[in-house]
Amino acid sequence: MIILAGLIGCGAMALVDGLWQPGYWVKSAVKMVLFLALPVAAAALGARDALRALPKLFRPDRRALIRAVGLGLGVLAVILGGYFTLGQFFDLTAITGALTSGVGVTGDNFLFVSIYISFVNSLLEEFFFRGFLFLGLLDGAPRWVAHVLSAGLFALYHIAMMLGWGSPALILLILAALFVGGWIFNRLNEASRCIWPSWLVHLCANLAINTIGFILFAAA
Q1: What does the pLDDT profile of the chain (220 residues) look like in tens digits?
Q2: CB 172 within 8 A of CB 38
Q3: CA separation for the pair 41, 98 (Å, rounded)
Q4: DSSP label at 139?
Q5: What DSSP designation does 68 have?
Q6: Cα dihedral sign for 58, 24, 1, 42?
Q7: Which residues, at least 6 apart from 36, have a Cβ–Cβ distance to it below 8 Å?
Q8: d(CA 105, CA 99)
Q9: Cα–Cα dist 180/174, whole Å
Q10: Backbone angles phi, psi at 158, to 5 degrees
């Protein structure tokens, strides 16, 4: 039921991003309903242990949080350093145009969107992909299955929203980075069994990416 819920959630969001293509806030509302309702539905249909474990996902682990802060700052530096080093080799100008035409994100509203992405959307994704999917699967499936499914679905979930961002090589590079990032997030939460460590790193990654977004919109 956990795997099925993950497939339904990612498939539904692919249809929303690829076919329906509503405005950003409508899409965000749909995702919030899906990513919160699917774990409850899966629990009601047979994964009751996962439902009972959900509150434990929000219990902080002090030692894990300290490590996550250091790693998060490192990730922020790597992403920004990678952009300033490798960005010249890719045409990134299509990203802002795709965001504007696809979900209505513009330079005028990007500040509000970036705050939501960094703090709210990242927490929602960590709850669904690392909390419900990864930690839920970890209790009843081989460890490698939990890692691959959670990180793989996390990467694939982003494909539809990246349509029109640039060349296939750029999309593949981003997907590979998302898979590796998802695997790292899983490892962060594996020992602590809570989602706060991965959320802190995810937050830092989003802050770096949104900084790049501000640069791209300013140059557009």
Answers
A1: 889 999 999 999 999 988 888 889 999 999 999 999 998 888 777 756 666 677 888 998 889 999 999 999 999 999 999 999 988 777 787 888 878 877 789 999 999 999 999 999 999 999 999 999 999 898 889 999 999 999 999 999 988 777 767 778 888 888 998 999 999 999 999 989 999 999 999 999 999 999 999 999 998 7
A2: no
A3: 34
A4: T
A5: H
A6: positive
A7: 124, 127
A8: 5
A9: 10
A10: -90, -10
Amino acid letter, 177: A
In single-letter form, the type of residue at position 39 comes to P
Neighbours of 30 (CB within 10 A): 17
Region of 21 on the Ramachandran plot (φ > 0 left; ψ -120 to 50 alpha; else beta): left
The residue length of the chain stands at 220
Tokens at 218, concatenated: 């300013």
The one-letter code for the residue type at 62 is: R
User: Each residue of 22-43: pLDDT tens digit?
Assistant: 889 999 999 999 999 998 888 7
Distance from C-alpha of 21 to C-alpha of 19, rounded to nearest angstrom: 6
